[in-house]
Amino acid sequence: MANVAVIGAQWGDEGKGKIVDWLAERADVVVRFQGGHNAGHTLVVGESVYKLSLLPSGIVRGTPSVIGNGVVLDPWALRAEIERLAAQGVVATPETLRIADNCALILPFHRDLDALREDASGAGKIGTTRRGIGPAYEDKVGRRALRVCDLAHLDDLGPQLDRLTAHHDALRAGFGEAPIDRDALVAELRAIAGFVLPFAKPVWRDLNLAKEAGKRILFEGAQGVLLDIDHGTYPFVTSSNTIAGTAAGGSGLGPAAVGFVLGIAKAYTTRVGSGPFPTELEDAVGERLGTRGHEFGTVTGRKRRCGWFDAVLVRQSAAVGGITGIALTKIDVLDGMDEVRICTGYRLRGDVIDYFPAHAAEQALVEPVYETVEGWHESTAGARSWAELPAQAIKYIRRIEELIRCPVALVSTSPERADTILVRDPFAD
Ligand code: GDP
Ligand code: IMO
Ligand code: MG
User: Fold this and answer.
1) Which among 101, 130, 239, 418 has most CB atoms closer than 10 A?
2) Which ligand neighbours the alpha carbon of 106 most closely?
3) Strand, helix or coil at 250?
């Protein structure tokens, strides 16, 4: 029996939330291990739609949930999300939600800096979610961050705040912004500390005990491998490692705790924000994918860019991300097309290459090499078994498996929780 890590195999929004919610029925605990409230995971259960950014998707089923140390935590966003979900009948209490006491905090000036930088970058902007994710991780790595445990020691912040504000005041001055008001900041932290602290625990201990007791741990990744700080389309990436290896370090468990790595991939490709996208379709087909797939960001409402399935990129993601099996989502969005294309390689200066080069100049030059497969006119929407899929859709899935060199473990055919085809049980491995 393996623990399972769910990670995005493209540029995020692959349907991780839906799959985590589905798998959470059989998990004993669900753990977020990186990212923050830049994530937007939509779950559809009957008539109800739940949108989660910071909370692990298991919370909707009431599965015990953990926010691990690898996450950057905005305490105000946490409170707002807990309150929003409570209004929908999903209750997060210190019994059902535990937050690592060594999580780095996202503070209001991180959000300001994210926006100031984006606004000043013109055409070169990353297109971040403006949630302060990058600046908060910078402070963590720069050893200046405040952490959840500091909320219990707000009277002793002196030297820590000196270092943090000195760094940020210099940056703010560059943008013509006033220095940080330290008294106001400490007052805001004091006001929120009482809310956050009851959830704060050394969660690594609980997780290691759970591991020893043979409990099933489900790790929930945010973003996707192509947004990984090392392996993604740098600099158009997020500021954390999104690969499965992070599940161990971002939760306080050793690498052996991660068993089956389920990579989530859409049956086509989307991207929100700037950066290279070889198979992007800026035509009626791209529009059709966006409309049928409702491709608008959960967090920012931005329109997602759409294109054909890129087998080169997903094969690369599977390799660097450590993916054991794929959950292929949104196959229903391709219903009714005469033909569907898959990118199998890139043409670069006359040669065909089978990987995405690291340098931006080469990334801009690559031209996708496509294989065209016959589409299907029957509906796959809502299919719950392999037998309900049209032959051409099965052929498409099988061809993808071959090209990405990774088996398909699940197929998702609608936003609804139960509309999922299980091919190989990740927990059974
Ligand atoms: P995440 O960030 O990876 O969790 O993905 P998002 O929730 O941001 O985006 C995926 C969107 O697709 C959500 O609105 C889901 O409800 C929806 N979705 C997930 N799986 C399917 C599917 O198989 N078919 C269709 N049509 N929609 C899906
Ligand atoms: P989920 O978990 C899609 C993108 C942003 C931007 C880049 C950097 O829902 O799949 P950041 O705010 O992280 O500094 O932005 O990363 N991005 C996402 N794109 N899905 C996400 O999360 C994303 N989280 C960040 O659009 O291009
Ligand atoms: Mg999303």
Assistant:
1) 239
2) 2
3) coil
Nearest residue to 148 (alpha-carbon basis) of 182, 107, 109: 107
Q: What is the pLDDT of residues 357-383, one digit of tens each?
A: 999 999 999 999 999 999 999 999 999
Query: 349-364 burial string, b = 16+ CB within 10 Å, else e?
Result: eeeeeeebeeeeeebe
Catalytic annotation on 13? yes
Q: In angstroms, what is the span from residue 235 Cα to ligand 1's centroid?
A: 26
Strands 269-271 and 305-307: antiparallel
Mean pLDDT, range 24-42, rounded to an integer: 96
Nearest atom of ligand 1 to the alpha carbon of 224: 3
pLDDT at 300 over 90: no
- Give the pLDDT score at 124: 87
Name the residue at shortest CA distance from atom 10 of ligand 1: 15
Contact between 69 and 252 under an 8 Å Cβ cutoff? The reply is: yes
Nearest CA to ligand 1 atom 17: 415
Q: What are the chain's domains? A: 4-102+200-260 (3.40.440.10), 104-196 (1.10.300.10), 266-428 (3.90.170.10)
